[in-house]
Structure to design on (531 residues):
Protein backbone atom coordinates (compact mmCIF):
# COMPACT_ATOMS: atom_id res chain seq x y z
CA UNK A 1 0.00 0.00 0.00
CA UNK A 2 1.33 3.37 -0.91
CA UNK A 3 1.19 6.33 1.45
CA UNK A 4 -1.68 7.85 -0.57
CA UNK A 5 -3.77 4.73 -0.16
CA UNK A 6 -3.11 4.64 3.57
CA UNK A 7 -4.09 8.29 3.86
CA UNK A 8 -7.17 7.68 1.75
CA UNK A 9 -8.45 4.88 3.97
CA UNK A 10 -7.58 6.81 7.12
CA UNK A 11 -9.42 9.92 5.97
CA UNK A 12 -12.38 7.94 4.67
CA UNK A 13 -12.68 6.08 7.95
CA UNK A 14 -12.46 9.33 9.88
CA UNK A 15 -15.06 10.99 7.67
CA UNK A 16 -17.55 8.14 8.01
CA UNK A 17 -17.00 7.80 11.77
CA UNK A 18 -17.35 11.55 12.34
CA UNK A 19 -20.46 11.70 10.15
CA UNK A 20 -21.99 8.92 12.24
CA UNK A 21 -21.09 10.78 15.42
CA UNK A 22 -22.84 13.90 14.06
CA UNK A 23 -26.04 11.88 13.97
CA UNK A 24 -25.53 9.89 17.15
CA UNK A 25 -24.41 12.64 19.53
CA UNK A 26 -27.07 13.65 22.02
CA UNK A 27 -25.57 17.08 22.51
CA UNK A 28 -26.03 19.45 19.55
CA UNK A 29 -22.71 21.18 20.27
CA UNK A 30 -20.93 17.84 19.95
CA UNK A 31 -22.72 17.26 16.66
CA UNK A 32 -21.44 20.55 15.29
CA UNK A 33 -17.88 19.76 16.40
CA UNK A 34 -18.04 16.33 14.75
CA UNK A 35 -19.30 18.00 11.59
CA UNK A 36 -16.16 20.14 11.63
CA UNK A 37 -14.10 16.94 11.80
CA UNK A 38 -16.00 15.71 8.73
CA UNK A 39 -15.04 18.88 6.87
CA UNK A 40 -11.42 18.35 7.81
CA UNK A 41 -11.47 14.80 6.49
CA UNK A 42 -13.08 15.93 3.24
CA UNK A 43 -10.47 18.67 2.87
CA UNK A 44 -7.84 15.98 3.29
CA UNK A 45 -9.42 14.11 0.39
CA UNK A 46 -9.27 17.24 -1.74
CA UNK A 47 -5.55 17.54 -1.02
CA UNK A 48 -5.08 13.91 -2.07
CA UNK A 49 -6.80 14.83 -5.34
CA UNK A 50 -4.32 17.70 -5.75
CA UNK A 51 -7.03 20.31 -5.27
CA UNK A 52 -5.32 22.36 -2.56
CA UNK A 53 -7.26 25.52 -3.23
CA UNK A 54 -10.59 23.75 -2.89
CA UNK A 55 -9.36 22.08 0.30
CA UNK A 56 -8.38 25.26 2.06
CA UNK A 57 -11.44 27.21 0.86
CA UNK A 58 -13.61 24.38 2.14
CA UNK A 59 -11.95 24.80 5.55
CA UNK A 60 -12.13 28.60 5.61
CA UNK A 61 -15.73 28.86 4.43
CA UNK A 62 -17.36 25.85 6.08
CA UNK A 63 -15.26 25.06 9.13
CA UNK A 64 -14.16 28.64 9.73
CA UNK A 65 -17.28 30.66 9.07
CA UNK A 66 -20.48 28.67 8.66
CA UNK A 67 -19.90 26.24 11.50
CA UNK A 68 -19.03 29.13 13.81
CA UNK A 69 -22.46 30.57 13.05
CA UNK A 70 -24.02 27.16 13.78
CA UNK A 71 -22.18 27.10 17.11
CA UNK A 72 -23.34 30.66 17.84
CA UNK A 73 -26.97 29.76 17.39
CA UNK A 74 -26.77 26.53 19.33
CA UNK A 75 -24.82 28.05 22.20
CA UNK A 76 -27.12 31.07 22.47
CA UNK A 77 -30.27 28.95 22.38
CA UNK A 78 -28.63 26.70 24.97
CA UNK A 79 -29.85 23.50 23.36
CA UNK A 80 -28.81 20.71 25.65
CA UNK A 81 -29.74 17.08 25.73
CA UNK A 82 -31.69 17.80 28.90
CA UNK A 83 -33.69 20.71 27.50
CA UNK A 84 -34.64 19.00 24.27
CA UNK A 85 -38.36 19.68 23.78
CA UNK A 86 -40.84 16.89 23.07
CA UNK A 87 -41.14 16.65 19.36
CA UNK A 88 -44.52 16.77 17.71
CA UNK A 89 -45.70 13.68 15.87
CA UNK A 90 -45.65 15.64 12.59
CA UNK A 91 -41.97 16.41 13.06
CA UNK A 92 -41.23 12.74 13.48
CA UNK A 93 -43.28 11.93 10.38
CA UNK A 94 -41.42 14.58 8.36
CA UNK A 95 -38.13 13.11 9.55
CA UNK A 96 -39.20 9.63 8.45
CA UNK A 97 -40.22 10.92 4.99
CA UNK A 98 -36.97 12.88 4.54
CA UNK A 99 -34.90 9.92 5.66
CA UNK A 100 -36.82 7.63 3.31
CA UNK A 101 -36.14 9.95 0.36
CA UNK A 102 -32.46 9.93 1.24
CA UNK A 103 -32.47 6.14 1.42
CA UNK A 104 -34.02 5.93 -2.06
CA UNK A 105 -31.30 8.24 -3.36
CA UNK A 106 -28.58 6.13 -1.74
CA UNK A 107 -30.02 2.93 -3.19
CA UNK A 108 -30.14 4.45 -6.68
CA UNK A 109 -26.54 5.62 -6.28
CA UNK A 110 -25.45 2.19 -5.15
CA UNK A 111 -27.21 0.56 -8.09
CA UNK A 112 -25.30 2.82 -10.46
CA UNK A 113 -22.00 2.02 -8.80
CA UNK A 114 -21.45 -0.84 -11.24
CA UNK A 115 -20.48 1.72 -13.87
CA UNK A 116 -17.66 2.89 -11.65
CA UNK A 117 -16.28 -0.57 -10.92
CA UNK A 118 -13.26 -0.56 -13.21
CA UNK A 119 -12.44 3.13 -13.04
CA UNK A 120 -9.76 4.50 -10.78
CA UNK A 121 -9.54 7.95 -9.29
CA UNK A 122 -6.51 9.98 -10.35
CA UNK A 123 -4.77 10.65 -7.07
CA UNK A 124 -2.25 13.46 -6.86
CA UNK A 125 -2.46 14.05 -10.57
CA UNK A 126 -3.84 16.76 -12.78
CA UNK A 127 -3.47 20.42 -11.97
CA UNK A 128 -7.00 21.68 -12.39
CA UNK A 129 -7.32 22.11 -8.62
CA UNK A 130 -4.22 24.28 -8.31
CA UNK A 131 -4.98 27.92 -7.85
CA UNK A 132 -3.10 29.07 -10.95
CA UNK A 133 -4.98 26.81 -13.34
CA UNK A 134 -8.25 27.50 -11.57
CA UNK A 135 -7.71 31.25 -11.90
CA UNK A 136 -6.92 30.97 -15.60
CA UNK A 137 -10.08 28.99 -16.28
CA UNK A 138 -12.26 31.22 -14.11
CA UNK A 139 -11.02 34.39 -15.77
CA UNK A 140 -11.07 33.09 -19.33
CA UNK A 141 -13.83 30.59 -19.90
CA UNK A 142 -16.17 31.45 -17.06
CA UNK A 143 -15.46 35.12 -16.61
CA UNK A 144 -19.08 36.35 -16.82
CA UNK A 145 -20.60 33.92 -14.31
CA UNK A 146 -17.60 34.48 -12.06
CA UNK A 147 -17.93 38.26 -12.11
CA UNK A 148 -21.69 38.01 -11.59
CA UNK A 149 -21.12 35.85 -8.51
CA UNK A 150 -18.59 38.28 -7.11
CA UNK A 151 -21.02 41.18 -7.63
CA UNK A 152 -23.62 39.11 -5.81
CA UNK A 153 -21.25 38.55 -2.89
CA UNK A 154 -20.30 42.21 -2.80
CA UNK A 155 -23.94 43.25 -2.71
CA UNK A 156 -24.56 40.78 0.11
CA UNK A 157 -21.66 42.33 2.04
CA UNK A 158 -22.90 45.86 1.41
CA UNK A 159 -26.35 44.66 2.43
CA UNK A 160 -24.99 43.44 5.77
CA UNK A 161 -23.41 46.84 6.39
CA UNK A 162 -26.62 48.65 5.40
CA UNK A 163 -28.65 46.49 7.77
CA UNK A 164 -26.19 47.28 10.53
CA UNK A 165 -26.48 51.00 9.80
CA UNK A 166 -30.28 50.91 9.91
CA UNK A 167 -30.19 49.69 13.48
CA UNK A 168 -27.98 52.57 14.46
CA UNK A 169 -30.26 55.42 13.31
CA UNK A 170 -33.25 54.30 15.36
CA UNK B 1 16.50 5.28 1.71
CA UNK B 2 12.77 5.19 1.25
CA UNK B 3 9.90 3.70 3.18
CA UNK B 4 6.43 3.84 1.62
CA UNK B 5 7.83 6.08 -1.12
CA UNK B 6 8.94 8.68 1.40
CA UNK B 7 12.51 9.84 1.66
CA UNK B 8 13.35 9.07 5.28
CA UNK B 9 16.07 11.70 5.45
CA UNK B 10 13.61 14.33 4.29
CA UNK B 11 11.17 13.16 6.96
CA UNK B 12 13.84 13.41 9.67
CA UNK B 13 14.91 16.82 8.39
CA UNK B 14 11.36 18.14 8.50
CA UNK B 15 10.67 16.64 11.93
CA UNK B 16 13.80 18.24 13.37
CA UNK B 17 12.85 21.54 11.76
CA UNK B 18 9.32 21.35 13.18
CA UNK B 19 10.68 20.57 16.65
CA UNK B 20 13.15 23.46 16.50
CA UNK B 21 10.61 25.97 15.22
CA UNK B 22 7.89 24.97 17.69
CA UNK B 23 10.30 25.01 20.64
CA UNK B 24 11.79 28.31 19.50
CA UNK B 25 8.33 29.83 19.13
CA UNK B 26 7.43 28.69 22.62
CA UNK B 27 10.72 30.01 23.98
CA UNK B 28 10.22 33.39 22.36
CA UNK B 29 6.64 33.45 23.63
CA UNK B 30 7.94 32.74 27.13
CA UNK B 31 10.18 35.76 26.99
CA UNK B 32 7.50 37.84 25.29
CA UNK B 33 5.43 37.54 28.48
CA UNK B 34 8.45 38.82 30.38
CA UNK B 35 8.99 41.63 27.86
CA UNK B 36 5.34 42.59 28.16
CA UNK B 37 5.69 43.07 31.92
CA UNK B 38 8.93 44.98 31.51
CA UNK B 39 7.50 47.26 28.80
CA UNK B 40 4.42 47.86 30.92
CA UNK B 41 6.68 48.72 33.84
CA UNK B 42 8.79 51.14 31.81
CA UNK B 43 5.72 52.87 30.38
CA UNK B 44 4.27 53.20 33.88
CA UNK B 45 7.58 54.37 35.36
CA UNK B 46 8.21 51.45 37.72
CA UNK B 47 10.94 48.77 37.77
CA UNK B 48 8.81 45.74 36.88
CA UNK B 49 9.77 42.12 37.73
CA UNK B 50 13.39 42.12 38.93
CA UNK B 51 13.65 39.59 41.76
CA UNK B 52 14.00 36.25 39.95
CA UNK B 53 17.50 36.02 38.52
CA UNK B 54 19.56 38.90 37.14
CA UNK B 55 17.22 41.69 35.91
CA UNK B 56 14.32 39.32 36.62
CA UNK B 57 15.31 37.16 33.66
CA UNK B 58 14.08 33.96 35.34
CA UNK B 59 10.64 35.46 35.95
CA UNK B 60 8.90 33.60 33.06
CA UNK B 61 10.10 30.27 34.49
CA UNK B 62 8.81 31.23 37.91
CA UNK B 63 5.45 32.13 36.34
CA UNK B 64 5.35 28.85 34.44
CA UNK B 65 6.20 26.87 37.56
CA UNK B 66 3.47 28.67 39.46
CA UNK B 67 0.89 27.87 36.77
CA UNK B 68 1.88 24.20 36.61
CA UNK B 69 1.94 23.72 40.39
CA UNK B 70 -1.49 25.26 40.95
CA UNK B 71 -4.48 23.04 41.56
CA UNK B 72 -6.35 22.08 38.46
CA UNK B 73 -10.05 22.72 38.82
CA UNK B 74 -12.70 21.48 36.45
CA UNK B 75 -16.09 22.95 37.41
CA UNK B 76 -18.64 20.27 38.28
CA UNK B 77 -21.17 21.46 35.71
CA UNK B 78 -18.61 21.92 32.97
CA UNK B 79 -18.52 19.71 29.91
CA UNK B 80 -15.33 17.90 30.80
CA UNK B 81 -14.06 16.79 27.41
CA UNK B 82 -14.66 20.10 25.71
CA UNK B 83 -13.33 21.99 28.73
CA UNK B 84 -9.96 20.33 28.12
CA UNK B 85 -10.25 20.56 24.32
CA UNK B 86 -10.64 24.36 24.39
CA UNK B 87 -7.14 25.41 25.50
CA UNK B 88 -5.58 22.55 23.51
CA UNK B 89 -7.24 23.81 20.32
CA UNK B 90 -6.24 27.41 21.02
CA UNK B 91 -2.61 26.40 21.41
CA UNK B 92 -2.61 24.05 18.40
CA UNK B 93 -4.13 26.65 16.09
CA UNK B 94 -1.60 29.22 17.29
CA UNK B 95 1.36 26.92 16.60
CA UNK B 96 0.09 25.56 13.26
CA UNK B 97 0.71 28.89 11.53
CA UNK B 98 4.48 28.50 11.80
CA UNK B 99 4.44 25.72 9.15
CA UNK B 100 4.26 28.06 6.16
CA UNK B 101 6.35 30.98 7.41
CA UNK B 102 9.69 31.18 5.59
CA UNK B 103 12.11 31.73 8.47
CA UNK B 104 15.10 32.22 6.19
CA UNK B 105 16.63 31.08 2.92
CA UNK B 106 18.15 27.62 2.71
CA UNK B 107 21.27 26.39 4.52
CA UNK B 108 23.63 23.63 3.44
CA UNK B 109 24.36 21.09 6.15
CA UNK B 110 25.91 17.62 5.74
CA UNK B 111 25.74 18.03 1.98
CA UNK B 112 21.97 18.61 2.03
CA UNK B 113 20.18 21.79 1.04
CA UNK B 114 17.75 22.46 3.84
CA UNK B 115 14.99 25.03 3.43
CA UNK B 116 14.31 26.87 6.66
CA UNK B 117 10.60 26.56 6.08
CA UNK B 118 8.51 23.56 7.00
CA UNK B 119 6.26 23.57 3.94
CA UNK B 120 6.41 25.88 0.95
CA UNK B 121 2.87 25.22 -0.25
CA UNK B 122 1.46 27.32 -3.05
CA UNK B 123 -1.54 28.34 -0.95
CA UNK B 124 0.52 29.58 2.01
CA UNK B 125 -1.53 32.64 2.86
CA UNK B 126 -4.84 30.84 2.51
CA UNK B 127 -3.49 28.19 4.87
CA UNK B 128 -2.79 30.88 7.44
CA UNK B 129 -6.33 32.13 6.98
CA UNK B 130 -7.70 28.66 7.48
CA UNK B 131 -5.75 28.21 10.70
CA UNK B 132 -6.70 31.66 12.01
CA UNK B 133 -10.35 30.92 11.42
CA UNK B 134 -9.93 27.73 13.46
CA UNK B 135 -8.44 29.65 16.39
CA UNK B 136 -11.96 30.90 17.07
CA UNK B 137 -13.01 27.42 18.16
CA UNK B 138 -10.54 27.37 21.03
CA UNK B 139 -12.23 30.42 22.52
CA UNK B 140 -15.78 29.35 21.73
CA UNK B 141 -15.47 25.79 23.00
CA UNK B 142 -13.69 26.88 26.15
CA UNK B 143 -16.23 29.59 26.86
CA UNK B 144 -19.20 27.33 26.30
CA UNK B 145 -17.85 24.28 28.13
CA UNK B 146 -17.23 26.37 31.27
CA UNK B 147 -21.01 26.55 31.71
CA UNK B 148 -20.75 30.13 32.88
CA UNK B 149 -22.76 32.98 31.38
CA UNK B 150 -19.88 35.45 31.50
CA UNK B 151 -17.55 33.00 29.80
CA UNK B 152 -20.13 32.31 27.10
CA UNK B 153 -20.75 36.00 26.42
CA UNK B 154 -17.02 36.65 26.22
CA UNK B 155 -16.54 33.71 23.88
CA UNK B 156 -19.30 34.93 21.58
CA UNK B 157 -17.81 38.38 21.59
CA UNK B 158 -14.40 37.01 20.75
CA UNK B 159 -15.71 34.83 17.95
CA UNK B 160 -17.78 37.55 16.32
CA UNK B 161 -14.88 39.96 16.61
CA UNK B 162 -12.49 37.51 14.98
CA UNK B 163 -14.89 36.74 12.13
CA UNK B 164 -15.62 40.42 11.47
CA UNK B 165 -11.98 41.39 11.28
CA UNK B 166 -11.03 38.38 9.19
CA UNK B 167 -13.05 39.92 6.34
CA UNK B 168 -11.20 43.22 6.31
CA UNK B 169 -7.91 41.35 6.78
CA UNK B 170 -8.56 39.18 3.75
CA UNK B 171 -9.55 42.15 1.61
CA UNK B 172 -6.41 44.09 2.57
CA UNK B 173 -4.35 41.02 1.72
CA UNK B 174 -5.81 40.73 -1.77
CA UNK B 175 -4.04 43.96 -2.74
CA UNK B 176 -0.68 42.46 -1.70
CA UNK B 177 -1.41 39.30 -3.60
CA UNK B 178 -2.31 41.33 -6.68
CA UNK B 179 1.14 42.92 -6.53
CA UNK B 180 2.98 39.65 -5.96
CA UNK B 181 0.87 37.36 -8.09
CA UNK B 182 1.47 34.42 -5.78
CA UNK B 183 0.01 32.93 -2.60
CA UNK B 184 3.28 31.37 -1.49
CA UNK B 185 4.92 33.37 1.28
CA UNK B 186 8.39 32.40 0.10
CA UNK B 187 7.75 33.71 -3.41
CA UNK B 188 6.36 36.94 -1.98
CA UNK B 189 9.46 37.41 0.17
CA UNK B 190 11.81 36.62 -2.70
CA UNK B 191 10.08 39.18 -4.88
CA UNK B 192 10.74 41.85 -2.25
CA UNK B 193 14.39 40.71 -2.07
CA UNK B 194 15.10 41.34 -5.73
CA UNK B 195 17.75 44.02 -6.21
CA UNK B 196 15.98 47.32 -6.80
CA UNK B 197 12.64 46.05 -5.50
CA UNK B 198 11.08 47.90 -2.59
CA UNK B 199 9.33 46.26 0.35
CA UNK B 200 5.59 45.93 -0.08
CA UNK B 201 4.98 48.56 2.60
CA UNK B 202 6.09 51.16 0.04
CA UNK B 203 3.29 50.10 -2.31
CA UNK B 204 0.69 49.17 0.28
CA UNK B 205 0.79 51.58 3.25
CA UNK B 206 -3.00 51.57 3.59
CA UNK B 207 -3.16 47.82 3.19
CA UNK B 208 -0.57 47.39 5.92
CA UNK B 209 -2.44 49.68 8.30
CA UNK B 210 -5.65 47.70 7.83
CA UNK B 211 -3.82 44.41 8.17
CA UNK B 212 -2.03 45.53 11.32
CA UNK B 213 -5.18 46.70 13.08
CA UNK B 214 -6.96 43.49 12.06
CA UNK B 215 -4.03 41.48 13.42
CA UNK B 216 -4.44 43.28 16.75
CA UNK B 217 -8.11 42.32 16.73
CA UNK B 218 -7.40 38.71 15.74
CA UNK B 219 -4.92 38.33 18.61
CA UNK B 220 -7.43 39.81 21.08
CA UNK B 221 -4.94 42.52 21.94
CA UNK B 222 -5.81 45.92 23.33
CA UNK B 223 -7.61 48.01 22.08
CA UNK B 224 -9.62 45.00 20.92
CA UNK B 225 -9.34 42.75 24.00
CA UNK B 226 -13.08 42.70 24.58
CA UNK B 227 -13.24 38.95 25.23
CA UNK B 228 -11.12 39.65 28.31
CA UNK B 229 -12.81 42.87 29.39
CA UNK B 230 -12.65 42.25 33.10
CA UNK B 231 -14.79 45.22 34.08
CA UNK B 232 -17.74 43.86 32.10
CA UNK B 233 -17.18 40.12 32.01
CA UNK B 234 -15.34 39.39 35.28
CA UNK B 235 -12.39 37.78 33.53
CA UNK B 236 -13.47 36.72 30.06
CA UNK B 237 -13.81 33.38 28.34
CA UNK B 238 -11.17 31.74 30.52
CA UNK B 239 -12.79 32.69 33.81
CA UNK B 240 -13.33 29.11 34.99
CA UNK B 241 -9.87 27.98 33.95
CA UNK B 242 -7.01 27.50 36.33
CA UNK B 243 -3.51 26.07 36.37
CA UNK B 244 -1.80 25.28 33.07
CA UNK B 245 -5.06 25.26 31.06
CA UNK B 246 -5.32 28.98 31.79
CA UNK B 247 -1.63 29.19 30.99
CA UNK B 248 -2.28 27.66 27.57
CA UNK B 249 -4.88 30.30 26.75
CA UNK B 250 -2.61 33.14 27.85
CA UNK B 251 0.35 31.58 26.11
CA UNK B 252 -1.54 31.01 22.86
CA UNK B 253 -2.15 34.76 22.71
CA UNK B 254 1.59 35.41 22.76
CA UNK B 255 2.31 32.71 20.18
CA UNK B 256 -0.39 34.29 17.99
CA UNK B 257 1.32 37.65 18.38
CA UNK B 258 4.66 36.21 17.26
CA UNK B 259 3.09 34.45 14.28
CA UNK B 260 1.15 37.50 13.13
CA UNK B 261 4.31 39.60 13.50
CA UNK B 262 6.16 37.09 11.34
CA UNK B 263 3.41 37.13 8.72
CA UNK B 264 3.38 40.92 8.66
CA UNK B 265 7.16 41.01 8.33
CA UNK B 266 6.99 38.55 5.43
CA UNK B 267 4.15 40.25 3.60
CA UNK B 268 5.05 43.91 4.03
CA UNK B 269 8.60 44.19 5.33
CA UNK B 270 10.55 41.84 3.13
CA UNK B 271 10.65 38.83 5.49
CA UNK B 272 14.26 37.72 5.92
CA UNK B 273 15.54 40.47 3.64
CA UNK B 274 18.34 42.63 5.04
CA UNK B 275 17.91 46.21 3.85
CA UNK B 276 20.64 47.74 1.65
CA UNK B 277 22.46 44.42 1.29
CA UNK B 278 22.54 42.03 -1.62
CA UNK B 279 22.39 38.58 0.02
CA UNK B 280 23.75 36.92 -3.10
CA UNK B 281 27.22 38.32 -2.35
CA UNK B 282 27.36 36.30 0.89
CA UNK B 283 27.83 32.56 1.19
CA UNK B 284 24.43 30.82 1.48
CA UNK B 285 24.87 29.70 5.11
CA UNK B 286 25.90 33.16 6.33
CA UNK B 287 23.08 34.75 4.36
CA UNK B 288 20.60 32.31 5.91
CA UNK B 289 21.74 33.05 9.46
CA UNK B 290 21.78 36.80 8.90
CA UNK B 291 18.37 36.57 7.22
CA UNK B 292 16.97 34.70 10.22
CA UNK B 293 18.34 37.41 12.52
CA UNK B 294 16.79 40.10 10.30
CA UNK B 295 13.39 38.41 10.46
CA UNK B 296 13.67 37.99 14.24
CA UNK B 297 14.56 41.67 14.60
CA UNK B 298 11.49 42.64 12.60
CA UNK B 299 9.34 40.34 14.74
CA UNK B 300 10.71 41.85 17.95
CA UNK B 301 9.99 45.36 16.69
CA UNK B 302 6.40 44.36 15.89
CA UNK B 303 6.01 42.72 19.29
CA UNK B 304 7.19 45.93 20.96
CA UNK B 305 4.64 47.95 18.95
CA UNK B 306 1.93 45.51 20.06
CA UNK B 307 2.89 46.08 23.71
CA UNK B 308 3.32 49.80 23.26
CA UNK B 309 -0.25 49.99 21.93
CA UNK B 310 -1.56 47.82 24.74
CA UNK B 311 -0.24 50.08 27.47
CA UNK B 312 -1.14 53.33 25.71
CA UNK B 313 -4.60 53.01 24.18
CA UNK B 314 -7.80 52.29 26.11
CA UNK B 315 -10.22 49.55 25.11
CA UNK B 316 -12.90 50.04 22.46
CA UNK B 317 -16.56 49.70 23.28
CA UNK B 318 -18.21 46.72 21.60
CA UNK B 319 -20.35 48.73 19.16
CA UNK B 320 -17.36 50.92 18.29
CA UNK B 321 -15.39 47.79 17.50
CA UNK B 322 -18.06 46.46 15.16
CA UNK B 323 -18.53 49.89 13.54
CA UNK B 324 -14.81 50.14 12.89
CA UNK B 325 -14.59 46.67 11.40
CA UNK B 326 -17.66 46.63 9.20
CA UNK B 327 -18.22 50.25 8.27
CA UNK B 328 -14.70 51.67 8.12
CA UNK B 329 -12.22 48.92 7.37
CA UNK B 330 -14.16 46.87 4.83
CA UNK B 331 -14.95 49.87 2.57
CA UNK B 332 -11.40 51.14 3.07
CA UNK B 333 -9.93 47.76 2.12
CA UNK B 334 -12.18 47.59 -0.94
CA UNK B 335 -11.01 51.07 -1.94
CA UNK B 336 -7.41 49.99 -1.45
CA UNK B 337 -8.02 46.98 -3.68
CA UNK B 338 -9.53 49.19 -6.38
CA UNK B 339 -6.64 51.64 -6.17
CA UNK B 340 -4.09 48.83 -6.44
CA UNK B 341 -5.88 47.38 -9.44
CA UNK B 342 -5.87 50.79 -11.08
CA UNK B 343 -2.14 51.29 -10.55
CA UNK B 344 -1.30 47.80 -11.77
CA UNK B 345 -3.32 48.49 -14.89
CA UNK B 346 -1.50 51.79 -15.35
CA UNK B 347 1.85 50.08 -15.06
CA UNK B 348 0.89 47.39 -17.52
CA UNK B 349 -0.42 49.89 -20.04
CA UNK B 350 2.61 52.14 -19.65
CA UNK B 351 1.52 55.74 -19.25
CA UNK B 352 -1.45 57.83 -18.23
CA UNK B 353 -2.34 58.41 -21.86
CA UNK B 354 -2.88 54.77 -22.57
CA UNK B 355 -5.04 54.50 -19.43
CA UNK B 356 -7.25 57.37 -20.58
CA UNK B 357 -7.26 55.72 -23.97
CA UNK B 358 -8.49 52.55 -22.32
CA UNK B 359 -11.38 54.41 -20.76
CA UNK B 360 -12.27 56.17 -24.01
CA UNK B 361 -12.55 52.91 -25.90
Amino acid sequence: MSIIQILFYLLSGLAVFAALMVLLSKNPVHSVLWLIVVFFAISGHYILLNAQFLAIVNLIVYAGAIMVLFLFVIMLMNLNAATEPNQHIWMKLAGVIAGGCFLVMLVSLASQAGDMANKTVLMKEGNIGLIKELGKILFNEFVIPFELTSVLFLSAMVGAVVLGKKDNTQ
Amino acid sequence: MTVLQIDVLLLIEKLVLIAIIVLASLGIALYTTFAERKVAAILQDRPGPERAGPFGLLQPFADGLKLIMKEEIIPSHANKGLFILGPALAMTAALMTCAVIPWSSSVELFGRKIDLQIADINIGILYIFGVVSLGVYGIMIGGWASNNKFSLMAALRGASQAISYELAMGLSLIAVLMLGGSLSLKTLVEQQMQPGALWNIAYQPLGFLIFFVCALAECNRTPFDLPEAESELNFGYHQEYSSMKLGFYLFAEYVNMIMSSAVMACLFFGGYDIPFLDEKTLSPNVAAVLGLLALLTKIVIFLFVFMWIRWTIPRFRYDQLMNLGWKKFIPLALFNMLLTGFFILMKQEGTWQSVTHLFNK
Remarks:
- The first strand of chain B starts at residue 2 and ends at 3.
